[in-house]
Amino acid sequence: MTILDRLTGLAFPAAVLRRAILLADSGKAAEAFPLMAKAARAGIVDAEYRVARCYLEGAGVPPSRMEGARWLLRAANHGSADAQALLAALYVTGLVTAEADGKGPSEHLFKPDSPGKPDFTAAFDFATKAAGAGSATGQAILGYILTSGPASMRDADAAHRWYEKSASAGCAEGCLGFALSLARRGKRENRVRIAEEVRRAADAGLPTATYLLAVLTEHGLGVARDMAAAAQLYQAAAEKGLPSAQFRLGLALIDGALVGQDVSAGEAWMRRAALAGNIEAAYLLGDRSVKTQRPDFAEAANWYRRAAEAGHQAAARALASLYLTGNGVAEDVEEGARWLRSSANGGNQQAQTDLANLILGGAGEPDDGASVAGWFEAAASSGDLIAAFNLGLCFAKGVGVRQDEGQAAHWLRRAAEGVAEAQYMYARLLQDGRGVAADPAQARVWFARAADAGVLDARVALAEMLLNGRGGTPEPEAAMQLFEQAAANGHAGAMFALGALYGAGHGLPVDQTAAQKWYAAAAGHGHSQAQLMLGRYLLKGLAGERDPVTARLWLERAAAHGISEAADELGAAGGSN
Known about the structure:
The chain is mostly helical. Helices cover 71% and strands 0% of the residues. The chain contains 32 helices and no strands. The protein has helices spanning 3-11, 13-25, 29-41, 45-57, 65-77, 81-92, 120-132, 136-148, 156-168, 172-184, 191-203, 207-219, 227-239, 243-255, 263-275, 279-291, 297-309, 313-325, 333-345, 349-360, 368-381, 385-397, 405-415, 420-432, 440-452, 456-468, 476-488, 492-504, 512-524, 528-540, 548-560, 564-576. Helix 7 (120-132) runs antiparallel to helix 8. The model is unreliable at 7-11 and 101-112 (pLDDT under 50). InterPro entries: Sel1-like, Sel1_AlgK, TPR-like_helical_dom_sf. It holds the Pfam family Sel1.
């Protein structure tokens, strides 16, 4: 600072401020700041506001949000509408706390600046003052508070009026707010005006407005539909760092929806969006990593985790799946359950079902059962058939509720109107008389519905009823067809049943070779009774082929599964050798 500046400052604070402004405008912020500070300490309101801006922007002085807020408060209390508007904005974003007046605890001086919770009450006070003094920025901020603040402060009509005043004064934020307020009114005749206001805000450089103009241009809302122009607008907003625009541009380049397809460039924009906090971009990157020809599960886990930690329910469920299967991460049932729980608690019904299945399998925490039952009861009561099915399972197994077969039957019957597995399970209850009166005829009807829907166990159960005539007339040929269908789809029980039918007849031609073939098929699928029968066939040569060594192996397998007859026959075979 020159001697002239010091002497001038003692007598003419306004002159000091003018000198400071000249220095600042010529890029000499470090020289300008001491002069501005002198003028501010002399009580010149404009100087107080400028000093605040210097602290907030780090112009000529180390940045300090707290010092900036303190000087803003002085200027605002001295009537500066600009200071009032800026202070309102800082309160709304949580960048100013109650300690802004410098009267807070001294330890705050040594804490790094970090956003706190919005203070809408303080923001409303200063925005109202600024708006009343004619500040277009203050009017826009007041409109925002009246639109998006606490419910007790909201007043859509008042917000609309303040946005309109701000837009009339040429404030970009006011133009954007006014356009959004018009859009919320839902009148088609406002579309052109909405587009005009959004364009004014976009022309003033607001990235959000540029993005919204791109959306309007892509869909032809209030403006001519132009895909190339929309792509350019998305790119302009993306280059200004707006994550939503980066995401949309990335998606368009991957899909080729707006301009020529460029997957590499699209994924690059998608990654920028994800790293900037767009959780949908992170989730889709995870999905793309999983669904490529050579899946990269570790990469997928990283993106899913980023989205899941930010609250994306589908990403949390996908991450849980990776932990439960050990793909891309170390297998960890507890961690998988934790992420499923997070997704389920957020309302994701698929995650609720997955967690229920996990709990029914014995995993999860003690409190999970009650949560799962509660989710399913609420959804089932409103008509969700999948939820009704799962609630029926909860009652059947006592998960989160007292075991109650009557309630299980009630909910499974509801679910049976559209869920094939529920049809099968309800038929089982009717067949056995559990939770409902035994009704073989109705059991047969519900087994048939489930069988037609492709439930293999239902086909086998229906075949057994058709074979023995329970619930209706015997139909052995139809039973044979159902057993063959289920066996062709890998059902070991159906394979065993075919072996028994061909071996004993039951009204059908006896064919011991076919019987041994089906026993062998079922035995290979781990069916212990089939292992016993195959051992007998090979030991006695019932189908013409005698093989005591292989027979002994199958009998040993059956005995290992607890089949006492197999152990007896092994003993007899040993004694006869």
